[in-house]
Amino acid sequence: MRGWFDAFRNDGGPTLYSYSNRTPVTGDVPTISLYVLFFTLFIAFVIIFPGVRKERFTTFTVTTLSLFVGSAILVSKYGSAWHVADTSIMSYYRAFSREKLAADIGVHIGLMHFNVTLQDIYLSGTVLSSLNLNDSLVNTGLLEDIDYNERFHWESATEIQEEFREALIKGLPYPILTVVEYFSMDEEGFCWGRSYRQAGYYASILLWASFASWCLMNLLLVVVPRYGAYQMIVTGALMITTNVLYYLLIPSTRLMIRFEDNFLMFKFGWCYWLCFSAGILCVAFGAVISIVDLMYPHKFSTILEVDYGTPFDRHIIIEESHYTKRNKRGSGKRSLEDPEPMGLGRKILRTLSMRGDKSDDLRLPHGVLNSGFEMDPPKSPWRYPHHMMNRPDGTPLRPALHNAFAKNPALVDRFIIIFFHDIIIRDVQRMRNNIWN
User: Fold this and answer.
1) Where are the transmembrane segments (predicted)?
2) Please, is 372 exposed, middle or buried when counting C-beta atoms within 10 Å of its C-beta (0-12, 13-18, 19+)?
């Protein structure tokens, strides 16, 4: 009778692992994790999207573009396909041996590491006749177990040399050691590793800056969509700058690694083109949204906005404003007194010219004194002697006295003093008479 824990056990002993269960690498764990993360977010958005009733096109476009750009930035950062090369080779498997290896070799360079893959022709499906192999030199029993995928890092200046020594001790196949030796040497003209490490270092910095700009872009799209469009252009520009800088910093002399009759010729991989295409899309969509906002202010909107559909929504506030209500009360037909409608070019120029040149204001900070300009006195009823000189309808009560004051303003002060002096004397005499009586 077998028990619950009798699987893989012989005669009641412990589990026996009688064979090696080594398997080749089938995928990059960080990259697959990023795929799963962003794909899960996109699926969650697609599930709730049928419930969206307004702004469907803009909401779907902005959300999809944002998730695509974010995944492109992180996948490009951790990916291993910025500069790639692959070919079919016939080379010695190890030193001091006549056994030749017929396999496919590939080199995938990332920003902070590179991968070297080596797979025998039986697993890769390469036709033997295309390699012109001598069957007497090929050990078919050896080839069936060859499926390597080794990763080497250069985050520090000497890390690649240390990993190269570990590969020698480990006993990796001769073709892999040949590739690693090209990148580990830093002498004379063999400075490939240093150039690729420098290009990856600065490209990594720009990608992290792009990721920070992407986070700010999402925040602004929720708060102020117009500024989110501007930040989208900045994010795309940073990603394109990453591609340009990487292109300028990689070795100007093309790296070619020779294996007898075949060469490893490097070219830009899918990570490079993914980052470039995402940057182009960011700049294009950001420019389109900005132009639409210049032509039709406050028209671009998504349901992702903070106050969307609430009394504090910017669209509701604009529609309920006095200016909008006054325009809605009209007949809707343009009269002869209304200005001609402006086209796209005039709208953009008018919007951009609202912030005019301030050089004139800087040259005359205190303004210009205009001696010919005379400001009218305020028509307040509390100003002396205005309420005594004018009737309620505004006409002068005493035209002669009014003209005299206009010709000589100093008479106003003298008149006020005399007027108040007479009032005070009159009040004092009245009080004295009341006391004596």
Assistant:
1) 32-52, 201-223, 229-249, 270-292
2) exposed
* Order of strands, sheet of 113-120, starting from the edge strand that comes earlier in the sequence: 147-153, 113-120, 100-109, 83-92, 267-268
CA distance 207 to 217: 15
Would residue 207 count as lying in a domain? no
User: What is the count of structural domains for the chain?
Assistant: 1
Q: Containing domain of residue 392, as a range? A: 386-436
End-to-end CA distance of the chain: 139
Q: Is 269 part of any domain?
A: no
Apex 310 CA angle, 309 and 313, nearest 5: 80
Q: What is the pLDDT of residues 252-295, one digit of tens each?
A: 888 888 887 788 899 999 999 999 999 999 999 999 988 988 88
Contact 320, 259 (CB under 8 A): no
Is residue 178 one of the residues assigned to a domain? no
- The helix/strand/coil state of 149 is strand
Host H or E run for residue 220? helix 192-223
Structure tokens at 288: 């389109």
